[in-house]
Amino acid sequence: MSNSKNLKKYLIDDEYLFDPKNNGNVIMLSGVWGSGKTHFWKNRIEPELEKLSDDNKAYVYVSLYGKENTESIKNEILLKAYESVKKENGTLTRTASVFNTTIKYVPSISLFGAKIDLNSINHFFTSKKVNEAKEYLLDGGLICVDDFERKSENISLNDLFGLFTQLSQDMKCKMVLILNSDVFEGKEAVIFRNVKEKTVNKFLHFSPSIDELYQSVFDEDKYKTLLPFQDNINEWIKHTEELNARLYIQVLDNCLEWVSKDFSVDALKALTYISIFFSKHHFTLEYRAETNTNIYTVVDYFLHKGFYEIASFLTRTAPQLFLRENPLELSETTQILMSHINKHKKDDKTEHSEDYLQRENEEIEKHRSLIVDFVKYVYILKVDVGIELDTYLRVNNFVKNGILLKDN
């Protein structure tokens, strides 16, 4: 059984999230960045939590994005807890998600064209409704907290996890924390290791395969038009070895628009690869022919910055290394490039400043992922193979500009 199916079975079918014995537990759902944790939760788990309200228990989903202190997080939780059971005042909870609920509001504002009486939010916290909200969380409510990578620097991890501990223990509600495995760095990483050991009761690892993650994204109704190409797109994505739901959505959205405007389906492979490359690096893979060498936009980037050896490696040396019968390991790309540059400098009779050599090596380190992916997509995946140049350039232009017009 797949990882996501196992998790759903454990959390929903086996009723971990509904079992009173687990009240007061803090559950951490972690995995690598982009692996689709939020997509899994929102699409596979959240719809099953509606039945909590049948027992007058609240389910609350809160993003840390835009929150400047723990008080605003707590206030939003209470607002959403009340609304999740009462099914009213939805505008209040959406407003609370946008604005910090601890500052003093002006009497009213216009939010997305609708006039909101913000005094009603303040009134919520001075009325019996706030006590009702607490009752809905007490002994069986569920709070999910997401977007840890967007946490404000103004909120310390100690305070944040202190809030989680307080809510889970005082309210005897369950808390689910969705985060990336490596979301914190430096001092925060050290603090995180300490606080999670003291706070978290259950660790769950989200690690879908590419097939599994792709299928979960493709299941959306809007992609039905792409059913004839579902397996092909999946196979091309597998060749990239990218495990990232956001990339898959970008690919499928682009393919959907391309097919809907009746352009050649032969270009879908190139569109898949170029969409992923652009999403990761903000470069397309278009090129111009120059003395029998294809000068790609990535190569132009290094040429314009004056790093000619990097550009030469990508256009002349790399094809010799990666288009042969037994290509080198892709992981060796930057080491080979650095060795190539250092050797070239030694053999060159002209004087080169050590400062320039150092800056070139620093440029390689800075753009390691870009360089490796360029070699991978151009020389290993051969992104432009099998389609006419005009179509290939149209694909690049569409990905770069986001505009695809039908031919007259």
Automatic annotation (TrEMBL):
Gene3D superfamilies: P-loop containing nucleotide triphosphate hydrolases. InterPro entries: KAP_P-loop, P-loop_NTPase. It comes from the Bacteria. Residues 6-204 form the KAP NTPase domain. SUPFAM superfamilies: P-loop containing nucleoside triphosphate hydrolases (SSF52540). This is KAP NTPase domain-containing protein. The lineage of its organism: Bacteria, Pseudomonadati, Campylobacterota, Epsilonproteobacteria, Campylobacterales.
